[in-house]
Amino acid sequence: MQTRLSISIICFNEEAIIGECLEQAARVGDEIVIVDSGSTDKTLEIAQRYGARIFQQDWLGYGKQKNFALSKCSNEWVLSLDADEVLTDELILEIQALSFDGGDAGYRVARKLFVADQFIRWGGYYPDYQLRLFQKSLGGFSELPVHESVNLPVGSRIRNLKNPLNHYSYDSFEQMDAAFTNFARLSTKKHNKILNPVLGPLNFVYTFLNKFVFRLGFLHGRKGVRLGWMHSKYSFLKYIYRM
Q: What is the pLDDT of residues 155-208, one digit of tens each?
């Protein structure tokens, strides 16, 4: 018997990209579960065209919202996607070829980040493997307000898939900068009035050198400088907002 797969997606006002996300997801999933937090655009109208099961839930934070979506999935195996993530044709074929009975608890998927239609290859942004395809009975997302991740039991066998998905997260570098600032506000980094004023600047310098130099961000030229600066500012603000 072929293993059935649920696709789990959380969304809010994603009409610009969710159609492309769902079109590809429908090729590999036996059901699509959408958890919406109050969209006012055409997001849900588009989701209905693809036969998605739609649930409304006020925003709980990224981790809790994704766990709520998991709870609505009918199948044991779940592929969790963001509404701005699109499966590539190659990844779809790879998932379709999986047996799901070889003892694997989950699979990590590489993500190709696009900013203003430009693939961000350097600076540590690729392959950015994320555990997204897994058995829901074995675990779920960490219930953090931001930068949630899937937790499975220690010793679980997890493999990397070869092909990536496309992540169309930001329409501009300005939008990316604003998002990073918001992520810093949501960070759970611990409050320390003595160390944070020192660690913040140190992390700014380290992050820039790591992104721009050691992870070859300079290969993006001026955009690499901007990306390194934005990520460094984010690292710095995580400490400042906790003072």
A: 999 999 999 999 998 999 999 999 888 888 777 555 555 565 667 788 888 899
To the nearest whole number, what is the mean pLDDT of the chain?
A: 91
> What residues does 133 pair with on adjacent strands?
79, 107
CATH architecture, domain 5-105+132-153: Alpha-Beta Complex (3.90)
Most confident of 9-18, 176-185, 231-240: 9-18
**Counting every residue, how long is the chain?**
243
Structure tokens belonging to residue 197 = 């004023």
Residue ranges per domain, the chain?
5-105+132-153, 173-240
Report how far residue 87's alpha carbon sits from residue 5's, in angstroms, rounded to the nearest whole number: 14
How is residue 3 annotated by DSSP? P
Q: What is the pLDDT of residues 90-106, one digit of tens each?
A: 999 999 999 888 789 99
Beta bridge partner(s), residue 56: 36
Dist CA 234 CA 184 (whole Å): 6
Torsion of CA 46, 51, 53, 57, to 10 degrees: 0
> Which candidate, 20, 215, 3, 21, places its Cα nearest to that of 95?
3
Residue 52 exposure: Cα atoms within 13 Å on the Cβ side: 31
Q: What is the mean pLDDT of residues 142-154?
A: 89
How many CB atoms neighbour CB 169 within 10 A? 17
